[in-house]
Design goal:
Blueprint (H helix, E strand, L loop, with lengths): L22 H12 L1 H11 L6 H16 L2 H18 L1 H5 L19 H8 L2 H11 L13
Organism: Cherax quadricarinatus (Australian red claw crayfish)
Subcellular location: Synaptic cleft
Family: Belongs to the UPF0545 family.
Length: 147
Amino acid sequence: MEGEVYADDLSSVPALSWLVRPCERYKEEYKDCRSIKAKFHQYFIHGETKDCSNWQADYDHCLQYRKYKDLESLTSVIKSEMKRRQERLKGHYTNTVWDKRESPPDDWNKPLPEYLQKTQEGSYLALKSKEQKEGKIEEPSYICTIS
């Protein structure tokens, strides 16, 4: 996970500083927000165009923190990120249709019904799992990672 605050700095910064994105992301969001395509989308969805100045302000504050380690600027970006997060999750928290549960059901890991077990028997995943348990599949001695 990328961020503007590094692990070495965590003891000297506010608790939610992990929310802060790299400064370039704020600039990209600002540029995207101001594009013609975005303005058209905003007008179509909301009936008006949105104010993009918050992205520019976050970018400026992020740069202030990056250059001068200004904690007020960092706090400002954190507050802005919290506000965005609160708006994004508003529908989840105000949903009254579903009852939220504190823990998973007691029988969450019970065996599948018989008809589902039969359809699973011939699947590729079941075949490969069986081969691996029997030792027929060798583990690769290398790992390929695409970044």
